[in-house]
Predict the 3D structure of the following.
Amino acid sequence: MADDLKALFRLDPGVTFLTHGTYGACPRPVFAAYQDWQVRLERQPVTFLEPRHLARVLAEARHELGAELGADPDDLVPVANATAGLNAVARSLPLAAGDEILTTDHEYAALEKTWAFVAARTGAIVRRVTVPLPLTSESAFTETVLAGFTPRTRVLFLSHVTSPTALLFPIGRAVTEARARGIWSVIDGAHAPGQIALDLNRLGADFYVGNCHKWLMAPKGSAFLHARRAVQGLLSPLVISHGWTPDGGTPGPFGHTAFQDAFQFQGTCDPAAFLAVPAALAFRRAQGWPGLIDRCRTLAQATAARVAALTGRPPIAAPEFCAPQMVAMPVPDCDPLVMRDRLLRDHRIEMPFPRWAGRSFARLSVQGYNTAPEMDLLCAALASLFAAA
């Protein structure tokens, strides 16, 4: 099954690709749909980008994505990637000197820089809590976060699935408690859509941003920003263009909500990647993707156990707190770029070696096209590399 699925991707057949979580990989049928949208744009760009037509096709894509995410499509807008969407949120919130942004020690480096930028501009303070490892219970995570709240906390910023450590944070209760305290919750869901089942309405985060190009397998340049209706008026896009209104009123200049118009109409752009999201969702349905995720989870955890036996380093979380298709495996201290280059050069395997909190990891992504023999190749390659180090 996995070998048959691999033929539906454009990945280099000479490389064992174990890093889907980095940038994703787009299946051939989805890529064809993406190119078809681009051709339609180029055939009649004026008609295609005219606000009434563009709003209609974007609404169709948002409707299908909303059904996947458990979200009202009118609370979703397209963004280029999760970093761009989270920047829009972080730079829109009315923070002042002394306000606190609470986060953890497992966040994505680019977003750590975003919040540092915001803090320098506003005088706000970024505070981090240390999540106890190994992570083995929801209460250990949540109580650690709640202990970080102070009367000055204005923002709770959490990853749903962490990038450097591939942990699945149980964020639900922390989000609920933040709302009860009048704290805005901002969730980095870059790795979540397509890897875990989402119900954004039920979660109730004020702002949730996710990528469609990773585990949903849409083309690069497709992501979403979800905002609760009550807080949409706080947001301004990073690009101010025809869709923006100075008072943030409803409706916007093109007859939709001010939130939608401001984010959907930002000058000339190619919306094809986001418009191909329904094709990605259809591809997943046709391939029975939930069953494939279960197979990937089993393969990832079995491989992590083999690597732990090889290195003598225990896992950093119980399996239920690891991302379903990703696992960060502790390995001997190493130079991440040297190890990645050697793994690719000597063994034709692509996989990253992130460093986090002074520790080295091998971060494995297992997608539906990956196989058990590929895991055998990885374990043998790691044994060789560690022996030579």
About this structure: The domain at 288-388 is CATH 3.90.1150.10 (Aspartate Aminotransferase, domain 1). The two ends are 36 Å apart (CA to CA). The longest strand covers residues 153-159. The mean pLDDT is 96.
